[in-house]
Amino acid sequence: MTEVAQPFEIPVFVVVPPRVLLLDVAGPIEVLRKANLEQQAVRFSVTYIGPSATVGSSIGLSVTGVAALPERLPDRALVVIAGSADAPMENNRPWDGQERAAQAGIVAWLKRAIRPGVRLVSICSGALLAAEAGMLDGRECTTHHGCMEDLARLAPTARIRDNRLYVEDGERLTSAGITAGIDLMLYIVAEATGHACALAVARYLVVYLRRAGSDPQLSPWLEGRNHIHPVIHRAQDAVAADPTRDWSVASLAHLSGASPRNLSRLFNEQTGMSVTDFVNRMRVALAREMLAGSRLDMEAVAMRSGFGSARQLRRAWNRLHDSPPSAARPRPALGS
């Protein structure tokens, strides 16, 4: 009898502060819920934690069943700190002593619990709690545009980026305002499970999956994805999952349930590019990752990314980039 492989589990601990901004929790964690349904290789196991079992939220709805802050986090844990609303719906009163004590409890816990091997993710103003705990000192980070001054005050040595959806600096990941938490979690899902799963989750949420927050350019993995046509998405998912395969219009048409002629027409209408252009963009993107992350020579990179030769790779590359493939290699460190 064949033994079924157990999924790789990523324990996720969502810190729920007082006056929690509910979308900071619901948006990113809905990404993880759908990712669990899309694939079986990785499972995100979510626990909601905080200093209080019940807290009020930004929209006046109470959140209950919050577990206590754990004494120790497991290895590979992902800690997500949600933000808070200054003025929840129908409640403009100042912060009371109990709420401030709860915030202080979160800060003290972060100082104790976050260690190497634990990734810390802040959503929106959750970065302020991370900063107060010293988690962002000397790091690149971001937060909601309305919290930039507070972040600079709490983390004076941090390198704050004010024009990014999110920023990753080692084991610290911070996002901008509110819905940017969805972008950050889609990035985390793509990193853990692959681009195809993240794209499927983005489509389910009916959001336009944007690139890494530290890069203003649109990722080639995401270009041509701002549509909701299921036939084209099936073809694109197949290519993204295995760009090196010998994809023909006919094979993709058969897989996606359309005639070759109809697939070509739909591809141009929905994505603004041909099927062949899309396949080559995926292969060039894969080649770029290999050039940046390996020491393979150009011929090996070309073969492993689906091109027949380095010449074919360069030809496809030059249609998309002004600089040559060699420019994608990391620069040697000074003095090396």
Automatic annotation (TrEMBL):
Keyword Transcription: yes
InterPro entries (UniProt xref): Class_I_gatase-like, DJ-1/PfpI, Homeodomain-like_sf, HTH_AraC, INH-QAR
SMART domains the UniProt entry points to: HTH_ARAC
A GO term, aspect molecular function: DNA-binding transcription factor activity
Domain called HTH araC/xylS-type: residue spans: 233-331
Gene3D superfamilies assigned to the protein according to its UniProt record, in alphabetical order: 3.40.50.880, Homeodomain-like (1.10.10.60)
Domain of life: Bacteria
Identification of the protein by name: Probable transcriptional regulator protein, AraC family
Keywords: Plasmid, Transcription, Transcription regulation
Keyword Oxidoreductase among record annotations: no
